[in-house]
Design brief:
The complex is a heterodimer. Chain A contains 16 helices and 14 strands. Chain A is globular. The chains are: A alpha/beta, B alpha/beta.
Chain lengths: ~400, ~280
């Protein structure tokens, strides 16, 4: 089955065409046929980048004013005589849509129905910047490919198994019932994917595996997984909580916000932008939100770059230990995301001091594990450390196939 | 007004052509916009790349031909009926008849302005509170001939600009300007009569009614000459003494103390920021 996976932002569409099936999933024999992005939608100079598997990248610029035109252009390129990968749009068997926020309504992926779409619309107040473009992308794809099933896969759904002790805040309870104020968590597809791969690599049954998965990219979160389910995660009601991120602050005393707003005479917009775009690694270091650049600066003696990295690793270490406590024990720590997959030094610095829990890395295995799956633990440890490249698009494609075929999701 | 609107539009991704009357003013507009974005950057409200992207979406020009191809045209020339009508006439010659013209007038008649446009059904008023980048309200003003379609286009633009929209029927001063002017005027009278200093009047009213800025600072920000123009217009149109400009306002305008843009009004200003009270207040 060929599944078109779509991730629609306000002015961009990222997509992959993935060939998979129930048998292919079991053998991990899924294949990405092509991938691409359309950026600057809404302008006369939108940029469409496309790459068929094993071929050169092609880039094209044209006027693309809305998501529907972007989708038409994607199908034009996929069926292009010279660099396309399918002969006709009818070869697309299903479409899988990434949806950011499914609130409490969605605990798993679903086939898009009018009721499901209404429920996603009801979640707009929870993700005012993300759900509307996700929905616009869905509407556009539904019009262009009306005869195939469309599946909705949510960033939040995986965390819906958290218990109330993990998802409620210490606020008046009525705020939860009135406005849905609670931890939702994000990066659900990534945590779910690497959790599943970890169990395969460890050769352990779902029921007996306790994991802490660390998705470390420009946005970052930690997830505690038991019985294959998310039981706690570090991102909260919005993607601001938890770890120190590229430009986001992570955990913060809420009292600071009101003090700073008053002291600096900031508006609500300004303080929101400060916490989301000017904080975290870039805010502390004054250098960059990019871990590679920070490591280079640190090597040249930049003190605040070092401080930012130290704070990032320290916060992560606290979360790993805290979540091990929440799980009542630990079988493996898993690193994924741009930093998690490619920065051995960050992995090593984050786990320093956790030897008492049975965590210890093999320095050579750690150094060699860049952008590939690996067990980087030292020999004889009780808690293993894994590196697993994430693949959110694959999760979307597989869920779509399972929904179409009526198979169980996990 | 025009610059602030251009900044707001560009910041949400709309390509803007900013037509100025002279090269000097176009250059000044670019400098002012850049400075305004720098102030927002210093307050963490935007990022450096957003500043760059916003500026890149604005074309500063003195050639009216450059507005050709626009989907909507917004005039923000000074509050002078003859001038606004002349602009409408000029734009009509440059743009196809389906293009909507928006006038930014806060007190003049949209109907009269539209009469000169050759497309009265496609002219609508949009009155933003200042500064456009931060205010949350826009009054959308129907002229007598404004079509529903044109009105809806303006509502859509208002929402895109993240404003709450209210519908207003043509009447001098609409809602916002009409209600605030007597209040500003009274604050100036209090200062003129020596009851309290400009600083204390602002402080008292800010704290008593939870205004973000006091009335006299607001007058300074808008420009004393602009406030005087609005009041004179309402006084002429409606003949009601409650719109008679405070003599202190006239006196300060004559002295060139026009507020923020002049570096001095009720307060002293430097690079767009308030410094404090002038050494000696005008009485």
């Amino acid at each position: 089955m060929k599944v078109l996976v779509l991730n629609c932002g306000s002015s961009s569409v990222k997509y992959q065409l993935i060939e998979t099936s129930i048998e292919a999933i079991e053998k991990s024999a899924d294949r990405t046929l092509a991938r691409g992005t359309v950026e600057r939608i809404g302008t006369g100079s939108a940029v469409h980048t496309f790459q068929a598997a094993g071929r050169e990248k092609v880039t094209d610029s044209s006027e693309i004013l809305e998501h529907r035109e972007a989708l038409s252009d994607i199908l034009r390129v996929l069926t292009h005589g010279e660099f396309g990968v399918i002969a006709d749009p009818s070869e697309v068997d299903a479409v899988g849509h990434r949806m950011v926020h499914g609130g409490e309504r969605f605990t798993a992926s679903v086939i898009a129905t009018p009721e499901a779409i209404r429920a996603v619309q009801d979640c707009i107040p929870l993700a005012p910047l993300h759900n509307p473009p996700n929905l616009r992308g869905y509407e556009a794809a539904k019009r262009i490919l009306p005869d195939v099933p469309h599946a909705l896969v949510f960033d939040t759904a995986y965390h819906q198994t958290m218990p109330p002790v993990a998802y409620l805040y210490g606020l008046p309870y009525v705020l939860y019932t009135r406005h849905g104020i609670r931890r939702y968590g994000f990066h659900g597809m990534s945590h779910r994917f690497v959790g599943w791969r970890s169990r395969v690599l460890l050769g352990r049954p779902r029921e007996e595996t306790r994991l802490v998965t660390c998705h470390l990219g420009n946005g970052a979160s930690v997830c505690a997984i038991a019985h294959g389910r998310s039981v706690d995660t570090s991102l909260g009601f919005t993607p601001l909580e938890g770890l120190i991120m590229g430009t986001r602050c992570g955990d913060l005393d809420p009292g600071v916000i009101f003090h700073v707003m008053h002291a600096e005479e900031l508006s609500e917009h300004q303080v929101t932008t400060m916490l989301n775009k000017h904080s975290g690694l870039v805010g502390i270091s004054g250098v960059s939100n990019d871990m590679r650049e920070l490591l280079e600066a640190e090597a040249k003696g930049h003190e605040r770059a070092k401080l930012a990295i130290d704070m990032f690793c320290y916060r992560l270490r606290k979360y790993i230990a805290a979540f091990a406590g929440a799980l009542g024990g630990l079988d493996a720590v898993v690193f994924t995301g741009g930093i998690g997959e490619n920065a051995p030094e960050i992995r090593q610095r984050s786990l320093e001091g956790l030897e008492f829990m049975g965590l210890r890395l093999d320095p050579e295995r750690n150094a060699a594990a860049v952008d590939r799956e690996a067990d980087i633990s030292a020999d004889g440890v009780t808690v293993r450390t894994l590196v697993i490249p994430t693949n959110e698009e694959l999760i979307i494609a597989r869920d779509t196939v399972r929904l179409v075929e009526g198979a169980e999701q996990y | 007004m025009g610059r602030s609107l251009a900044q707001k539009m560009a910041s949400i991704g709309i390509d803007v052509t900013l037509l100025e009357v002279s090269r000097e003013r176009a250059d000044q507009a670019r400098r002012d916009l850049s400075a305004s974005l720098d102030r927002e950057l210093a307050k963490w409200g935007i990022t450096a790349s957003e500043k760059k992207a916003t500026l890149a979406r604005i074309t500063f020009t003195v050639d009216p031909a450059d507005v050709a191809g626009s989907e909507m045209v917004f005039e923000a020339v000074p509050e002078d009926l003859a001038l606004k009508q002349a602009v409408m006439l000029r734009l009509d010659a440059l743009l196809p008849s389906e293009v909507v013209f928006v006038t930014s007038t806060s007190t003049l008649s949209v109907t009269e302005i539209a009469a000169a446009s050759g497309r009265a059904d496609r002219v609508v008023g949009m009155h933003f509170a200042q500064p456009v980048t931060q205010s949350r309200i826009v009054e959308i003003v129907r002229g007598t001939a404004t079509s529903n379609e044109t009105f809806e286009r303006a509502v859509e633009l208002g929402r895109m600009l993240e404003k709450t929209v209210i519908e207003v029927f043509e009447y001098p001063g609409y809602v916002v300007t009409r209600a605030i002017l007597p209040f500003l005027n009274e604050a100036m009278h209090i200062v003129m009569e020596g009851v309290s200093s400009a600083e204390d009047v602002d402080l008292a009213l800010r704290l008593a009614y939870e205004f973000k800025i006091g009335p006299l600072e607001y007058v300074d920000r808008v420009g004393l000459d602009t406030i005087l123009g609005w009041m004179e217009h309402l006084f002429r149109e409606l003949g009601d003494f409650k719109y008679r400009p405070c003599p202190l306002l006239r006196k300060m305008v004559r002295a060139g103390y026009l507020g923020r843009k002049a570096g001095r009004g009720f307060f002293e200003w430097e690079a767009g920021e308030r410094k404090g009270r002038p050494a000696e207040a005008v009485r």
